[in-house]
């Protein structure tokens, strides 16, 4: 994925949505940043982001989703927007699944 420009609009979106990182650091990882926008972004955030990325970039995030970011609703919505119906299983973090009793 191409790097994202550090525009004032994108830095503001990054500051609000990826609050646990510095805005420039959040933009340096486009897949992670866009996944957060796709899950937690407002309409205004999406308008700002869509000035620099296109549908193919959102679809690329779905090809390489960071586990633990998407919720069921946003995962289903973005897969539908990218023409993927039915949506594949939601990505999960490895090693965090609860062990079954007796295993």
Care to describe what's here?
It is built from 6 helices and no strands. It is mostly helical. Helix 3 (30-40) crosses helix 5 (55-63). The model is unreliable at 99-103 (pLDDT under 50).
Brief synopsis:
The chain is an all-alpha fold and 103 residues long. The chain is built from 6 helices and no strands.
Please write out the topology.
Layout: H1 8-17, H2 23-27, H3 30-40, H4 43-49, H5 55-63, H6 72-81
Specify the number of helices: 6
Share of helix, binned: 40-55%
Count up the domains: 1
The largest β sheet comes out as: none
Specify the structural class.
mainly alpha
Distance between the termini: 41 Å
Q: β content, as a range?
A: under 5%
* Poorly predicted runs of 5 or more residues: 99-103
Number of strands: 0
What features would you highlight for this structure?
103 residues, mainly alpha, 6 helices, disordered C terminus
């Amino acid at each position: 994925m191409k790097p994202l420009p550090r525009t004032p609009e994108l830095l503001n979106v990054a500051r609000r949505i990826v609050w646990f990182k510095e805005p420039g650091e959040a933009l340096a990882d486009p897949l992670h940043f866009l996944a957060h926008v796709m899950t937690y972004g407002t309409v205004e955030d999406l308008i700002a982001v869509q000035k620099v990325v296109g549908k193919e970039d959102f679809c690329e995030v779905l090809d390489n989703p960071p586990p633990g970011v998407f919720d069921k609703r946003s995962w289903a919505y973005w897969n539908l927007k990218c023409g993927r119906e039915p949506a594949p299983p939601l990505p999960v973090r490895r090693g965090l699944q609860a062990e079954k009793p007796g295993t």
